[in-house]
Amino acid sequence: MVNKDEKSKKNAPLIGIDIGGTGIKGGIVDLKRGKLAGDRFRVPTPQPSTPEAVAEAVAHVVEELSKRPDAPSAHSPIGVTFPGIIQHGVVHSTANVDNAWLGLDIDGLLTARLGRPVEVINDADAAGLAEARYGAGEGVKGTVLVITLGTGIGSAFIFDGKLVPNAELGHLEIDGFDAESKASAVARERDGLSWEEYSVLLQRYFSHVEFLFSPELFIVGGGISKRADEYLPRLKLRTPIVPAELKNDAGIVGAAIEIALKHKLAK
């Protein structure tokens, strides 16, 4: 039988941190609603973005959030996202951060610096978890693919609401090219493509992914998801394709979900 203290810990607010190439942002996540309790707090990502410098910036964000009246316990675990492959707490790729991170135990580094349990998840995986639990993928059975269009192409593979981590679908080779080199949001800007021209490239990409995985739903995130009406209606797919709902908070929310699930703090 679960006592009242244990029951009250379920879905209690937790801190989520989202490490990016240009900014590190965090918030207190209300896990009952999948929303932030209060405003995000953001600091610039240190340059160079070495492990020690980034750990200090993360500590600063956590310190600021911990001063708030609705902050969780000082001993509560913290979820963190990182722009790279994370396996068993170790960094195996880097995107837009210093290469000194490669091979580093990021869980161990941040746990030691913050003095509380920390678990790190790939940034696109975190966004996917958030969308699957609270956003456009809520309640969808089967395979849901969350694709983020930004500097590159990030992806999260969700099956029956559970994450299959580190799916790097932006690096599929299509027509002899890494997909993200032609179909990311940055590639569209770099090549000066109209939305109609960009939609042709997205059609090629999503048709290929659809053939490989036959998902029940595509969810498109990233900054240009705000302009989804410019390109999603042009795509002809069997699979429904919709914009993400959690926008810029998805990484923070997903980081908190991950740590809650790992520590059995979420229902």
Question: Could you explain the architecture of this structure?
Answer:
By secondary structure, this protein is an alpha/beta fold. The chain has 2 domains: 134 residues, Nucleotidyltransferase, domain 5, CATH 3.30.420; 109 residues, ATPase, nucleotide binding domain (Nucleotidyltransferase, domain 5), CATH 3.30.420.40. It is built from 8 helices and 15 strands. The strands form 4 sheets. Strands 1, 2, 3, 4, 5 and 8 form a 6-stranded mixed sheet that branches. It has a 5-stranded mixed sheet with strand order 11-10-9-14-15. A hairpin with a 2-residue loop joins strand 10 and strand 11. Helix 2 crosses helix 3.
H-E order: HEEEEHEEEHEHEEEEEHHHEEH
- Cα shape: globular
Average the pLDDT over all residues and give the rounded result: 94
- Strand % is 15-25%
Tally of contiguous helical segments: 8
What gyration radius follows from the Cα positions, in whole Å?
Answer: 18 Å
How can the largest sheet be summarized? 6 strands, mixed
* Number of beta strands: 15
Pick out the low-confidence regions: 1-7
Distance between the termini: 15 Å
Question: What share of the residues lie within helices?
Answer: 25-40%
The named CATH superfamily of the largest domain:
ATPase, nucleotide binding domain
CATH topology of the largest domain: Nucleotidyltransferase, domain 5
State the CATH architecture of the largest domain.
2-Layer Sandwich
CATH class of the largest domain: Alpha Beta
Integer tally of domains:
2
The structural class is alpha/beta
